[in-house]
């Protein structure tokens, strides 16, 4: 801390001697900062989100709207008569926030999807930083010009936490935690599970399972309805 002025967390009252975080323009300790970020209320504008191909987990229409977004995106680029559809769910069950991908993959395996869809990345067999390149090579050797939907968790601004986005182009795994990993996918779905900007690894570890589980349910149900 600068000077001799003692500062205290405005939420719990703890003396701030090592770290200083700001929440709502007030100094708070690290633990309270993460807690407040996780529990702060989030409002959303459905039409504004839909205009950017996004939905929010608190929207009761999230599954149906996400299905429509996925269908619209697939109609633009996916050729069902010539391309095998691959869903690659990136992440690890060793981190709560990063478990979104494996949760989606495991849920998808419980649906009766047609034989045009293969799934990589589940809780039992996750696709993560250490084996991603290997899995990409397996897909490239096994399939001829597949269409890949990649799914991963992400970090973002506080007001965006809880939103799920669908975008054309490859997923860049690890970008939120400054990892240089290979790109994957023709289309990618990202769920923003927590805030970015401070100690991203710790933030992912401390992410509430409830948020991740709700996202996994919405994404898996929307995909299953879209791909059947």
Automatic annotation (TrEMBL):
This is Putative sporulation protein YyaC. The lineage of its organism: Bacteria, Bacillati, Bacillota, Clostridia, Halanaerobiales. InterPro entries: Pept_HybD-like_dom_sf, YyaC. It comes from the Bacteria. Pfam families: DUF1256.
């Amino acid at each position: 801390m600068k000077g001799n002025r003692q500062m205290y967390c405005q939420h719990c009252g703890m003396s701030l001697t090592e770290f200083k975080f700001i929440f709502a323009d007030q100094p708070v300790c690290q633990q309270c900062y993460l807690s407040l970020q996780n529990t702060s209320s989030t409002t959303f504008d459905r039409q504004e989100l839909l205009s950017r191909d996004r939905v929010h987990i608190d929207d009761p229409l999230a599954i149906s709207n996400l299905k429509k977004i996925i269908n619209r995106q697939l109609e633009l680029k996916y050729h069902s008569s010539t391309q095998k559809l691959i869903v690659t769910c990136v992440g690890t069950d060793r981190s709560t926030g990063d478990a979104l991908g494996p949760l989606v993959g495991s849920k998808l395996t419980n649906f009766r999807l047609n034989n045009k869809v293969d799934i990589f990345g589940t809780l039992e067999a996750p696709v993560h930083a250490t084996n991603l390149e290997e899995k990409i090579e397996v897909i490239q050797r096994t399939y001829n010009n597949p269409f890949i939907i990649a799914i991963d968790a992400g970090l973002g601004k506080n007001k965006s936490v809880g939103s799920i986005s669908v975008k054309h182009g490859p997923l860049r795994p690890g970008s939120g935690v400054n990892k240089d990993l290979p790109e994957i996918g023709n289309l990618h779905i990202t769920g923003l599970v927590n805030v970015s900007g401070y100690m991203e690894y710790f933030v992912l570890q401390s992410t509430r399972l409830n948020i991740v589980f709700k996202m996994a349910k919405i994404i898996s149900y929307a995909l299953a309805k879209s791909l059947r």
